[in-house]
Amino acid sequence: MRVSRTQDSPTKVTLTVTADTADLSPIHRHVLGHFRRNVKVPGFRTGKAPVELVEKNVNQQALLDEFMEHALNELYRQAISAEKLRPTATPDVQLKKFVPYTELQFEIKLDVIGPIKLPNYKAIRQPKPKVSITAKDIDEVIKSLQNRLAERVETKRAAKLGDELIIDFAGKDSDGKAINGTDGKDYPLLLGGNSFIPGFEDNLIGISSGGSKEFEVAFPKDYGVAAMRQRKVIFNVQVKKVNELKMPKVDDELAKKAGPFNTLAELKADIKKELSAERQRQADIDHQNELIRRITEESHVDLPQNLLDDELTRLEDEEKRNLAYRGQTWQEHLKEEGVSEQEHRGRYKPEAQERVKAGLVLSEISELEGLQVTPQELEIRMQLLKNQYQDPQMRAELDKPDAARDIQARLLTEKTIDKLVEYASGSK
Asked: What is the pLDDT of residue 45?
């Protein structure tokens, strides 16, 4: 087999593959072996006739079709292996010449992962963070417990900071159309608790039980749901009750009410332990993200367009699902934003580029480090995931090959990140 390669761009390659009788004969005999199992040849038991006789007794077009499928797949596999290519999409294959079973030439145009230039990632130092919990941190949790365990006393006066309001609320857009996910019934809202978006609670100070108010607030630009970021929503709020909170004393009795504790000291020790674990988990995630960002930023990668397009589509699909949940169509959203579909897609481009680049960099490092996921590791993770779900349908989804591949890729990424953290800490 001869392979001629043309590098059209760093991420696009054209291969011309030429095969002769020596290359095609093994494939020809292999395909005939498939037919031999079902073809009846006079004088021979099924499956026992010589392949030469089998060929004379089969449908020639069916034989040719299966031969071509096997030949193109096998020679394509050999070609990309010989050229050390990493395709990122289904190739475009064009047949150039075919003399049955003796000569075959075809052209392959494919998108590939180009050369990846990494920094000396082993030399990057970024010590693992250590978190600390202060007395103020513990007091804030105690304050929250006091609010939860406080005695609620209904009052007819105007609401002030520290009061709990029982409210019904509903959000709508400027055209008066309800926005899904922005409504609630009998919701207990602590004024000053900052549990709602900025500006919402401030508008309710001074309202008495039975009162109502309509006001407009904008969701923050860093809001967790992309579709709602900086979106202006008109809220109508009905205040059904105003409760004054009678706070319990911070003592051993409070600890006993809060959980399986005998003393306030035991409660505080447990709060410190839980806060420390939670903050350490978040600090570790932030540390990993920053390390990946540094390595990715110092790497050079030519990004295949098809991978970028796939990532852009994933980001858009996620936003569309959020919009649908809130009762807004994609076209309504574009109109509200005042942008075209292409302009909106462009907003995602930097994030998509960063994600694709980081993924390729981590993949390159995992290969350089010789990291692998063993069948046992995959089986353990799959079983742990299945144990989290009681729904038979969800468990069935995990049994699909695509799910196993996704979990395997996730495990490999975790191993790669762990290795980078090990290098960055200077422990290896």
From this structure: 65
